[in-house]
Specification:
single chain; alpha/beta; Rossmann fold; 39% helix; binds guanine
């Protein structure tokens, strides 16, 4: 069994981007920039946004956090998004979700220019992904593909089984792996909670991608020998042995499944760090495609 080390790969990606940005600085060119917009006071969102800004600083990318109060109106937020759509120093715009209830999330996401939609959440980006056009894919699925590619895992003709149909992970990863392109070209099945017996599907997987948000859900008897397992889950469960009183586990019972898997992501240290690295990569891509 080989661990798919998201930390190592994410560091490698960051190092590559850091070198590219250093070259731009040397040439006296503008550098890529990311603005993260945070509305309200959600502690988890504050941590996410702070870590994104830290990632940018580490590779020499420009970044800014726009922190708005919980009572910010939809109109004010739309105006701010529009301001950054026009700003030549910020090539990626990220509006941290969830937004306060009085703001229509869809409307805000749709207001982000598709040229700067580094989260890949807008209907234009999603549509382009589905029809196989170059676009921004959302960061977690893009990171999963990158991890498979960097470990040289064959995907062509392989059966990828996706557990979960969310707009952020399940649907986009299925569409990515379906594309007739290198690092994809897979046979794809999407499963979800309405399946009577999920193991009928999971047992067929050459590559199993678990994104259902249910701790330790996938057990050893649900997979075949040699399966490649990507665990997207981040679940908090009680752990009396830990000082914090909890620990983070994935959607896959790592201990059991890792005995049968050929490759498997750990949680933490797998997909999560890849997500962060892909946000930087998407921002760099936005700069290359549309920046000046
Ligand atoms: N909230 C939780 N994850 C994400 C993410 O990847 N992007 C945005 N914009 N909001 C989030």
């Amino acid at each position: 069994m080989i661990l798919l080390d998201g930390k190592k790969v994410a560091e490698a990606i960051k190092e590559e981007l850091k070198n590219e940005i250093a070259k731009l600085v040397e040439q006296g060119k503008n550098i890529p920039g990311l603005v993260a917009i945070l509305v309200g006071e959600n502690p988890a969102s504050e941590i996410y946004v702070r870590s994104k800004a830290k990632d940018c600083a580490e590779i020499g990318m420009r970044s800014k956090v726009e922190k708005l109060g919980p009572d910010t109106s939809e109109e004010t937020l739309l105006k701010l998004v529009e301001k950054y759509n026009q700003d030549k120093d910020y090539h990626g715009i990220l509006v941290q979700l969830p937004l306060p209830k009085h703001i229509n999330e869809d409307k805000i996401i749709e207001a982000i220019s598709p040229k700067k939609d580094v989260d890949g959440f807008s209907p234009v980006s999603v549509g382009n992904l589905v029809i196989g056009k170059d676009t921004f894919a959302s960061c977690t699925p893009a990171g999963i593909q990158e991890l498979l590619v960097r470990y040289g895992i064959e995907t062509k003709g392989k059966h990828v089984v996706v557990l979960g149909r969310s707009n952020i992970v399940g649907k986009p990863i299925a569409n990515i792996m379906l594309q007739k392109k290198a690092g994809a070209n897979s046979i794809v099945t999407i499963c979800h909670s309405a399946a009577k017996d999920l193991s009928l599907f999971t047992k067929q997987a050459d590559i199993l991608i678990a994104a259902i948000g249910s701790p330790n859900f996938v057990k050893a008897e649900m997979v075949k020998d040699g399966v490649v397992v990507v665990d997207v889950g981040i679940n908090r469960i009680e752990d009396k042995n830990s000082a914090k009183g909890y620990k983070i586990v994935g959607d896959v019972d790592f201990e059991g499944v890792s005995k049968k898997a050929s490759f498997i992501t750990p949680v933490p240290g797998g997909v999560g760090l890849m997500t962060r690295a892909m946000l930087l990569k998407n921002t760099f891509k936005a700069y290359l495609n549309f920046g000046e």
